[in-house]
Amino acid sequence: MKKSYKIEVDCANCANKMEDAAKKVAGVKDCTVNFMALKMNVEFEEGADSKAVMKDVLSACKKVEDDCEIFGI
Ligand SMILES: [Zn+2]
User: Fold this and answer.
1) Cα 15 to ligand 1 centre (Å)
2) Long-range CB contacts (within 8 A, 24+) of 15-24
3) Are 35 and 15 spatial neighbours (Cβ–Cβ below 8 Å)?
4) N-terminal to C-terminal alpha carbon distance within the chain
5) Residue 9, exposed/middle/buried by CB under 10 A (0-12, 13-18, 19+)?
6) Which three-class secondary structure state does DSSP give residue 3?
7) d(CA 43, CA 30)
8) How many domains does the chain have?
9) What's the pTM value of the predicted model, to 2 decimals?
10) Would you place residue 58 in the very low, low, confident or very high pLDDT band (cuts 50, 70, 90)?
11) What pLDDT, on a 0 to 100 scale, did the predictor assign at position 3?
């Protein structure tokens, strides 16, 4: 299952940090962040609860970049 989220982040460097942080979260199979489009594309593991996983992704991302936001979780 793949989902796309609108994000807010201040620079490409922080976008890369968000991508790396998200990839380490349990339930995330793969993640790509497009800074130009301000989009995060997440592929979830089989049977993962996307809402619960994305809450963990958001807190992981906030640890690396305080000002980031992920919308539509
Ligand atoms: Zn930044």
Assistant:
1) 7
2) 17/61, 17/64, 17/65, 18/61, 18/64, 18/65, 18/68, 20/64, 21/57, 21/60, 21/61, 21/63, 21/64, 22/57, 22/60, 22/61, 24/60
3) yes
4) 15
5) buried
6) strand
7) 5
8) 1
9) 0.95
10) very high
11) 98
Please give the residue range of the domain that contains residue 65: 2-70
Two tokens at 45?
Answer: 């593991």
Residue 72 φ/ψ region, left for φ over 0, alpha for ψ in the -120 to 50 degree band, beta for the rest = left
- CA of 10 relative to ligand 1 center, distance in Å: 5
User: 44: which 2 tokens?
Assistant: 């979830």
Query: Tell me, what's the pLDDT at 52?
Result: 98
At 47 the three-state DSSP class reads: coil
Going from the Cα of 5 to the center of ligand 1, the distance in angstroms, rounded, reads 19
- Cα separation, 50 vs 72, in Å, equals 11
- To which residue do tokens 């609108």 refer? 6
CATH code for the domain of 54: 3.30.70.100
